[in-house]
Amino acid sequence: MGELSSQGHLADPDDIGSNDSGNPGFDSILQARLSRRQVLGGVAVSAMGAMFGALSAPAMAASASGAQQRGAAPARARLGFNAVAKSVADSLVVPTGYTATVLYALGDPLAAATAPYRNDGTDTGFEMRAGDHADGMEYFGLSAAGAPAPGSSGRGLLAMNHEAITQHFLHVNGASANPRPAAEADKEIAAHGVSIVEIRRVGASFATVQDSAMNRRITPLTPIEISGPARGSAMMKTAYSATGTATRGTINNCGTGRTPWGTLLTGEENWAGYFTRGPADDLARGNDKSVTSLNRYGRRQGAASRHGWETTANAEPYRRFNISQLGASPDGADDYRNELNGFGYIVEIDPYDKSASISKRTALGRFAHESAAFGLLGAGKPLAVYMGDDSRGEYIYKYVSAANWDPRDASAANRIAAGNKYLDHGKLHVAKFNDDGSGRWIELDIANPAIANWAGYRFADQADVLINARIAADAVGATRMDRPEWCGVHPVTGEIYVTLTNNSNRRLEPGAGQLGLDAANPRAYADTRAASQSFPAKSSSGNVNGHIIRIAEAVGKNAARSFKWDVYLFGAQSDADPARINLSSLTAEQDFSSPDGLVFSRATGICWIQTDDSAYTDSSNCMMLGAIPGRVGDGGNRTIAYTRSDNSVLKVGAPVGKPATPDTLKRFLVGPVDCEITGLAETPDGRALFVNIQHPGESITAANIAQPDKYLSHWPANAGYGAGGANGRPRSATVVITRDDGGRIGI
Ligand code: FEO
Ligand code: CA
Ligand code: CA
Ligand code: CA
Questions:
Q1: Ligand nearest to the CA of 544
Q2: Is 29 helix (H, G, I), strand (E, B) or coil?
């Protein structure tokens, strides 16, 4: 997702860091040099040439427990498809022997009475159409009778996020300037949120069920409960909820997760940008601590809102997008000064039950959420949920439930009640990565003196700690990472994989507001993107191509306070310097940039890696790769030598995974021009894979709307889907991928 900059080019708003904490000290890593022995820390690492060959019986049992981990046992340790080449064509490419079919695209109807999408800017009624920018996605099986059936592969619900909008394509002549017409604002608001759409197997593929009674949209106006420790907090009071117990809607939903009891978790990511603050709002607030919080979450006074919805009218539902202190009340119950505290959560939705309440799970902290990945389940053991905060220099978090897992809850009749049990009471932790390959989970608790006595912000209570989790994480010295995106948990080893997409602020010699190198974020370099048919030339610096870090929990597993880690893979172009950039020795069939989505298949064990890139788009559109990773410690230490401007040398050591082989990492899919590949779900039998193609051709100006030859993409209209043909407006869409011989995907 992104916004047009003055160059007419996309600048990702989640690239904008607002972490001024100074964690960690640059000096602390200057002498970091690791030996392989230190990295492995004495852990016995068996040869994992066959990924699933070395499993212990308890590991297999853990992997098979719980409804969300059903599926055929992983059988092979080799990827069974032919790698696809990089591509800059405006088409979707999958391997020979596979078919990708568009299933559900922006504007598609969700009710019998909703007209087909004309795709010309005239369509309305997005409350019952597919939203824009499809992102994270989960599959929920249905029985033939339409009841919840997690193991069903023939009929199910797809629940997916609609993160953002390609604004101009929603209107006939592009978007109007402020003040925004109500008809435009209403359409844009409704195109955000979440879709739940029924799908059924039809022949070899799938189709949506337009008249399904289970179809629904959740939008930024849907009533939602504030749940967990921050429910009822004074910091939650608004003109909508004087008791601080409710808010409206969810926005900028990025990654997803699926609970063991069969509900959707959706992460609110770049929500802050939708709200404006007046130019003198700091003073209006008496420069109180709310100003510190707003600044830390990226809303400085004078910040404009992304789409200007508050300019439509100083009335509901638009006025909430101005979060300035405007009212006279002492507590904020007469304005929306606290509105931002109601966003930034993991939100739980029961996809099977329209009447169930939707809950923002405040116990999991407030930040720019991506996915929410559960650690392996163990009966009688706490649950763990792993999460990233995607902004430059932000943190990786782990939530540990107070309740121990009861396998009977996998089939709970009241799924939101199960969510209340496991997700409203627990401990939130943040990760600190040590340079020796060890790490710690630090609990974010008001009882911690480092938090209670933090000079930068005076926390009132635990609700305040969770609402301002970033500040609490600053206080305990968490490690500032290169934009944590999705987390995924290996279904057998239980190790946690986190994509770190890139960081334009990482530097060998950091200036103000920049970050130095450390073992967990060990690369900074310059890169050039050549001018191409679609994009102008561009220079980048920092961690340009991103990497994937992985974590092995120590004894105690989900509740562990310490871990070991290494870097699983570094993104790079294959011809980049192998000593400083292409440290994973990627070949032309494996090279990628800016990993973002990361999902392990429960049916095959394949780790699917998706990209959201703008650095390597001279060579390829965004893509998805299949991987069969080993485990933490299967490689060795790498030392990257940097020469500073004064010719002194800095050596940064990092534990790095075993290089991938042609059998363990291959490119599986390349998308159309100017898209991001994101979101992945599968049927439990592993024979259908659902993937989202987000915002093809999003680089568009209002001036070019009338000139289809200026569109960077016409997909999927140019592939015959929906209206528009070869000149059609591009649309975000969900595709279903099947194997022509009916087999499982990828193996
Ligand atoms: Fe929505 Fe950080 O990607
Ligand atoms: Ca390049
Ligand atoms: Ca993402
Ligand atoms: Ca991204």
A1: 2
A2: helix
Residue 551 falls in which region: left (phi positive, over 0), alpha (psi -120 to 50) or beta: beta
In the chain, domain spans: 3-269+344-739
Ligand 1 pocket residue status of 269, Cβ below 6 Å: yes
3-269+344-739 architecture in CATH?
Answer: 6 Propeller (2.120)
pLDDT in tens, 559-595: 999 999 999 999 999 999 999 999 999 999 999 999 9
pLDDT digits (tens, 9 = 90+) for 5-64: 333 334 445 555 778 777 753 323 222 322 222 222 222 222 222 333 333 333 333 333
**Which of 119, 162, 85, 348 shows the shortest CA–CA distance to 734?**
162
Tell whether pTM > 0.70: yes
The sheet that has 595-600: what strands, in order across it?
A: 595-600, 607-611, 623-627, 665-670
Cα 274 to chain center, whole Å? 18
Beta bridge partners, 526, equal 541
- Kindly report the protein residue whose alpha carbon is nearest to atom 1 of ligand 1: 254
Query: Please, which pLDDT band fits residue 555 given cuts at 50, 70 and 90?
Result: confident
Which residue, chain included where needed, has tokens 């435009």? 184
Who contacts 460 (Cβ-Cβ below 8 Å, separation ≥6)? 234, 235
Mean pLDDT on 679-707 = 98
Q: Is 318 left (phi over 0), alpha (psi -120 to 50) or beta?
A: alpha
CA 164 to ligand 1: nearest atom: 1
Question: Does the C-beta of 389 come closer than 6 Å to ligand 1?
Answer: no
For residue 460, pLDDT over 70 is answered with yes
Strand intervals (E) in 362-482: 369-374, 382-389, 396-404, 426-433, 438-443
Map tokens 């033939």 to a residue.
Answer: 144
Q: What is the pLDDT of residues 440-451, one digit of tens each?
A: 999 999 999 999
Number of Cα atoms under 13 Å in the Cβ half of residue 83: 20
Nearest CA among 489, 42, 510, 24 for reference residue 260: 489
